[in-house]
Design a protein that fits this description.
The chain is of the alpha+beta class and about 1000 residues long.
Length: about 1000
């Protein structure tokens, strides 16, 4: 280990460095995107798997940002490479740690993570102190390019600027909070003046309605003066027909103490009536006397607007019925969902049907439900509106397609309402459903391929980008929308792209290749720019498709030709004798042979219809085949008027006599020019699809309804260790094995039943667990019949590991390392999961005088106090006990198996004694706080747990009321059938104040 004791002449330098670090107020704070981004950029620019933003404390190094060193938040300072890096302003580079005497025996080199290469740029504050480093690490020795070193130093300077800006922002926030507190103290003196200046009507009345205070606005609305109103009854100004209802409402407020709102008219001194919206509440003065406090707002214009709104709604309802468009609105705070009448008619529900969010989602098919749920989540989280086409099943079992549009309404940055509309588009979707099965198959599979796609308008502004484009460019779709390439990437030279854009906007397709660095690796891409031309020939914009061609393989040989056997075709019908003389031809055949359907057939020979190549085929293949049998079917060509060499499907039959001799031949021919062209197009599309599928990392497989593979990409073939040609045509059991098939079988059966299915599977190998996401997508023929499914397999191992890490962080208090409230609740719920009574003890602990530490010494000192409080409490309990920081200066202890209230009291007093001792808060200063505790012990089950919490909280209040520094503990009632504790009323305001 290294000796970190500073030499005498550097003690002051170290003290100033640590003071500057504390001043940043950043140690032990949660991760922040800006620092994560700096670390990720350092990793990518230097091509290393690990990059850290490291801060050097007195005895540890703590990571503000961590890329690649999963599960590690800090390490001891005496083994930290970064402790060497902060001893100079220069970049520290260690090409091979095993060859460096300073680090060869370091446990981070000899053990995990096996450091070989290290480069660290010190974080030098503007005042000269070096508080940490931005460093990159690799497990293999390597050299560092000058450009990489320069980039790392620049990123380190940027990290310092960010730390100082963050420090200044925190300081300004604290100053603003102090200013607000001072303003609150001064505000009480101005309260009455404010009431007098308010435009709302404000009054205070005795229980019988006698007005003892009104503000000027109250008197003005009545058309009189304040003095003329005081002493009169508030009921004097209410019309006779409304007075009884208002009196009943006010008496309810005075009896219950709950605030109530309501509208009623008032009559002013001139006899004019106006509508006022009142909020009435009961006030209690210091003597205990009750008064009625009322605040009113003139809503006369609102009432008139509501009447106009009712008329508008009636017009809207008629418009909805005509256009088959319905509206809806969802209150995200209250959960209420509203449908218009037309929306109810579209869903074929009764007029009195009251929708809920879950009932509304149940109308959608599984595929459409997934789409709308994802769209709603994006709208709530990102503010992104949606415009989707969704399939739903009405209450009467009818299927229809609807266009669904919606958006979120935000208040103070929080989504509070969703609203939108439905329109029945079933007829249009019915037309779309006629698209061929081959086209749907290609589109369905292509939708799963991660190809970089974008659309730009004539001003070269991005109007659409897909997820692949966003990931590679590092720009979200929302940020890209409406901006040019030059605006998004000002550091790139836009000259060449601008020339290509001008060419494609002139109507010319442009293809070009370029190199790009991704994750430190050079890769080759092909960009295809295709003009978007409308029906009038005008270019509206262009499409950009980017395909990774680094590892392009020669497309697999085209699929076998699909030979179409056509029977009973009536296009050309002929009969001829063995010598070739035609004895019958239908009109189409006659026109084909001599240009007229009326001319006699005498003298016509079948050879007149056949071009040279078909005539050769007839003599060398067709006739020998017919001599051995009765039928020949195949493709040939014929010469038609104005069209030579027309491809046809040809069926020739032999007619034999009683002795087996050939009497004549019959032939049916059909023009297959369109089919031939279609075959060529299918071959082209199939080859393109196979090529694109082989370029993606996801494992793709197309399986028939019989369970045999029709197609697999290269990634799938590599995963199963067999050539693709050896897989196609085989069953899943033969390719992936019985065990794997059984794991996937439920999802496969759902896909074969026509339902889109998705599963996640874990696989153990060599002590490592990998995760795969597999989605099964059913395929249908144009008739609607199921025709197998597409399986898309994606490796999600890293995502699952990150989710597990984040789940652990979500249940831990980052400051103290204890459980947070969520972790505490989960631990207790797990312990009481059996439902049977369990012996447990619970104690709440609240710190005394903690706020004074924050106010006097600052939040850094407060944080130091909380960490030491946590350590002192941990020393007083068993390893099986649970301690949690519930928030602020509140803590809770959960002690399974402990039912002795006296023992719990001893533990509480020991903890209170420990916490009353002085606490070191740095810079040679100490702080003295205290604590109060309340707890219960006994037999508790899940149903009694809420009462147990309530009683422990009450006992804590009693301890604080008794003078702080005390512990109140009692045993729970354990009789069968009796509640653990007796619920009581909430604590008094005085107890709440004492606790604070």
């Amino acid at each position: 280990m290294l000796d970190l004791s500073p030499p005498p002449d550097s003690v002051d330098l170290e003290r100033r460095r640590l003071h500057k670090l504390i001043e940043l107020n950043v140690l032990d704070t949660p991760p922040e995107p800006v620092f994560d981004t700096l670390a990720r950029l350092a990793s990518e620019l230097c091509g290393t798997p690990i990059a850290l933003v490291s801060l050097i404390d007195a005895d540890r190094q703590w990571f503000k940002a961590n890329v690649g060193l999963h599960g590690v938040q800090e390490t001891p300072r005496d083994v930290a490479f970064c402790d060497h890096a902060i001893r100079s302003d220069a970049l520290l580079v260690v090409p091979d740690a095993t060859a460096d005497d300073r680090f060869a025996s370091n446990p981070l080199v000899t053990g995990g993570p096996g450091i070989r290469f290290y480069a660290g740029a010190p974080l030098v504050m503007s005042t000269g102190e070096r508080v940490g480093t931005l460093c990159v690490i690799d497990a293999a020795p390597r050299a560092m390019a000058p450009a990489q070193a320069t980039a790392l130093e620049q990123l380190a300077r940027l990290a310092v600027q960010t730390l100082e800006m963050r420090r200044d922002l925190v300081q300004r926030t604290l100053e603003a909070r102090n200013a607000r507190e001072e303003a609150t103290a001064a505000g009480a003196a101005r309260l009455r003046a404010m009431l007098d200046a308010q435009k709302e009507m404000v009054s205070q009345a005795q229980l019988d309605g006698t007005l003892v205070y009104v503000n000027p606005a109250y008197a003005e609305h009545l058309g009189t003066t304040v003095d003329a109103v005081l002493g009169r009854s508030l009921y004097d100004f209410i019309p006779d027909d409304e007075r009884a209802a208002v009196r009943e409402r006010i008496e309810g407020v005075l009896a219950s103490g709950e605030a109530v709102t309501g509208d009623n008219p008032i009559v002013d001194a001139q006899g004019h009536s106006r509508w006022i919206a009142w909020t009435n509440s009961r006030q209690t003065c210091t003597t205990g006397e009750h008064f009625l406090h009322s605040v009113g707002r003139d809503v006369t214009e609102r009432r008139r607007a509501e009447a106009r709104l009712a008329e508008s709604r009636a017009l809207l309802a008629r418009t909805e019925a005509i256009t088959r468009t319905g509206g809806w609105s969802l209150d995200l705070l209250g959960g209420a969902l509203s449908w218009s009448d037309e929306t109810r008619r579209l869903h074929e529900v009764a007029d009195h049907f009251q929708p809920t969010l879950e009932r509304a989602l149940d109308f959608y098919t599984p595929e459409s439900r997934a789409l709308i749920e994802a769209a709603v989540n994006r709208a709530v989280e990102q503010g992104t509106p949606w415009d989707l086409e969704l399939e739903l099943v009405t209450a009467r079992g009818n299927r229809l397609w609807a266009r669904a549009i919606g958006q979120a309404e935000f208040v103070d940055g929080r989504a509070v309402r969703l609203s939108g509309a439905f329109q029945d588009i079933s007829e249009r979707r019915l037309l779309q459903a006629r698209v061929g099965d081959q086209d749907r198959f290609i589109r369905k599979l292509a939708d799963e391929l991660p190809v970089r796609v974008a659309y730009l308008d004539t001003d070269r502004r991005y109007r659409f980008v897909n997820a692949k484009w966003s990931r590679l460019a590092g720009v979200s779709a929302a940020d890209a929308a409406g901006r040019t390439r030059a605006e998004l990437f000002p550091h790139l030279d836009d000259t060449l792209f601008a020339e290509r854009a001008r060419a494609v906007l002139a109507g010319q397709a442009v293809n070009f290749e370029f190199d790009e660095v991704q994750d430190g690796e050079h890769r080759r891409f092909e960009n295809r720019l295709t003009p978007d031309i409308d029906a009038s020939g005008q270019v509206r914009g262009f499409f950009l498709a980017g395909i990774d061609i680094t590892e392009r393989h020669v497309a697999r040989k085209a699929a076998e030709e699909i030979a179409a056997i056509f029977q009973a075709s009536s296009d050309l019908v002929l009969q001829w004798q063995p010598d070739g003389e035609v004895v019958y031809a239908n009109p189409a055949a006659a026109v084909a042979m001599h240009g007229s359907a009326d001319r006699p057939l005498q003298g016509l020979n079948i050879a007149a219809l056949l071009p040279a190549d078909t005539l050769t085929l007839y003599r060398t293949q067709i006739l020998p085949t017919l001599d051995r049998g009765t039928l020949w079917v195949g493709d040939a060509s014929v010469d038609l008027p104005g069209r030579l060499g027309v491809p046809v499907s040809l069926m020739v039959l032999t007619h034999r006599g009683a002795r087996g001799d050939v009497r004549r031949y019959s032939a049916v021919m059909r023009d297959i020019t369109t089919d031939v062209q279609a075959r060529q197009e299918v071959l082209r599309q199939t080859a393109t699809l196979s090529y694109v599928a082989d370029t993606v990392s996801a494992r793709l497989a197309v399986v028939s309804a019989e369970g045999r593979y029709r197609f697999v990409n290269e990634a799938f073939a590599r995963a199963v260790g067999r050539p693709a040609a050896d897989i196609v045509g085989r069953g899943a059991r033969e390719v992936i094995g019985e065990q794997e098939l059984q794991r996937r079988l439920p999802a496969i059966q759902r896909a074969l039943a026509g339902e889109r299915a998705r599963i996640e599977l874990a696989t153990e190998s060599n002590g490592q667990t990998t995760w795969a996401d597999i989605e099964y997508i059913p395929m249908r023929l144009p008739t609607g019949e199921l025709d197998g499914f597409v399986a898309v397999t994606t490796d999600i191992t890293e995502r699952r590991r990150e989710e597990a890490r984040l789940h652990g962080l979500s249940q831990t208090d980052a400051l103290t390392g204890l459980l947070n409230r969520a972790g505490f609740e989960q631990r207790v719920t797990s312990h009481l999961s059996s439902g049977e009574p369990e012996p447990v003890a619970l104690m709440y602990i609240d710190l005394d005088r903690f706020k004074a530490v924050n106010d006097t010494h600052g939040h850094a000192a407060g944080d130091a106090v909380l960490r030491q409080v946590a350590r002192r409490m941990v020393r007083r309990v068993r390893p099986t006990d649970t301690i949690a920081r519930l928030g602020g200066d509140e803590f809770a202890l959960f002690l399974p198996g402990l039912v002795d209230a006296a023992q719990l009291a001893r533990i509480g007093r020991q903890i209170i004694e420990d916490l009353s001792q002085p606490i070191d808060i740095g810079d040679g200063k100490t702080a003295t706080i205290g604590a109060s505790a309340g707890g219960v012990a006994g037999q508790v089950d899940r149903e009694r747990w809420a009462g147990t919490l309530n009683r422990a909280d009450q006992l804590l209040y009693q301890a604080k009321d008794a003078g702080r520094g005390r512990c109140q503990v009692e045993a729970l009632l354990t009789a069968v059938g009796s509640p653990a504790v007796t619920p009581s009323r909430p604590s008094s305001p005085r107890a709440k104040t004492a606790r604070a």
